[in-house]
Protein backbone atom coordinates (compact mmCIF):
# COMPACT_ATOMS: atom_id res chain seq x y z
CA UNK A 1 0.00 0.00 0.00
CA UNK A 2 2.67 2.53 0.97
CA UNK A 3 5.52 1.09 -1.06
CA UNK A 4 9.19 0.39 -0.52
CA UNK A 5 10.01 3.88 0.75
CA UNK A 6 7.57 3.51 3.63
CA UNK A 7 8.97 0.08 4.51
CA UNK A 8 12.57 1.32 4.57
CA UNK A 9 11.58 4.37 6.64
CA UNK A 10 9.75 2.16 9.10
CA UNK A 11 12.69 -0.27 9.29
CA UNK A 12 15.10 2.64 9.85
CA UNK A 13 12.89 3.99 12.64
CA UNK A 14 12.76 0.55 14.28
CA UNK A 15 16.55 0.20 14.09
CA UNK A 16 17.00 3.68 15.55
CA UNK A 17 14.58 2.92 18.39
CA UNK A 18 16.34 -0.37 19.12
CA UNK A 19 19.75 1.33 19.13
CA UNK A 20 18.47 4.07 21.46
CA UNK A 21 16.97 1.47 23.81
CA UNK A 22 20.26 -0.45 23.84
CA UNK A 23 22.22 2.75 24.53
CA UNK A 24 19.82 3.71 27.33
CA UNK A 25 20.18 0.27 28.93
CA UNK A 26 23.99 0.52 28.66
CA UNK A 27 23.98 3.94 30.39
CA UNK A 28 21.69 2.54 33.09
CA UNK A 29 24.04 -0.40 33.63
CA UNK A 30 27.05 1.94 33.86
CA UNK A 31 25.29 4.16 36.41
CA UNK A 32 24.30 1.19 38.56
CA UNK A 33 27.87 -0.12 38.40
CA UNK A 34 29.27 3.30 39.38
CA UNK A 35 26.88 3.49 42.32
CA UNK A 36 27.87 -0.02 43.42
CA UNK A 37 31.58 0.90 43.31
CA UNK A 38 30.90 4.13 45.21
CA UNK A 39 29.00 2.24 47.89
CA UNK A 40 31.82 -0.30 48.24
CA UNK A 41 34.51 2.37 48.44
CA UNK A 42 32.49 4.39 50.96
CA UNK A 43 32.60 1.42 53.33
CA UNK A 44 36.37 0.92 52.88
CA UNK A 45 38.40 2.74 55.60
CA UNK A 46 41.52 2.81 53.40
CA UNK A 47 39.55 4.49 50.61
CA UNK A 48 38.09 7.01 53.07
CA UNK A 49 41.60 7.85 54.31
CA UNK A 50 42.85 8.23 50.73
CA UNK A 51 40.01 10.61 49.88
CA UNK A 52 40.65 12.65 53.03
CA UNK A 53 44.37 12.94 52.18
CA UNK A 54 43.51 13.99 48.62
CA UNK A 55 41.06 16.59 49.95
CA UNK A 56 43.64 18.06 52.36
CA UNK A 57 46.27 18.07 49.62
CA UNK A 58 43.89 19.92 47.30
CA UNK A 59 43.15 22.49 50.01
CA UNK A 60 46.88 23.08 50.54
CA UNK A 61 47.40 23.56 46.80
CA UNK A 62 44.50 26.04 46.72
CA UNK A 63 46.09 28.08 49.52
CA UNK A 64 49.65 27.85 48.23
CA UNK A 65 49.66 27.34 44.46
CA UNK A 66 52.69 25.97 42.65
CA UNK A 67 55.46 28.46 41.76
CA UNK A 68 54.33 30.72 44.57
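Q: What amino acid sequence fits the structure above?
A:
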Amino acid sequence: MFGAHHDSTLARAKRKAAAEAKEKEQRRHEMIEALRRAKESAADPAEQARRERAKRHSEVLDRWPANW
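Q: And what stands out in the fold?
A: The mean pLDDT is 89.
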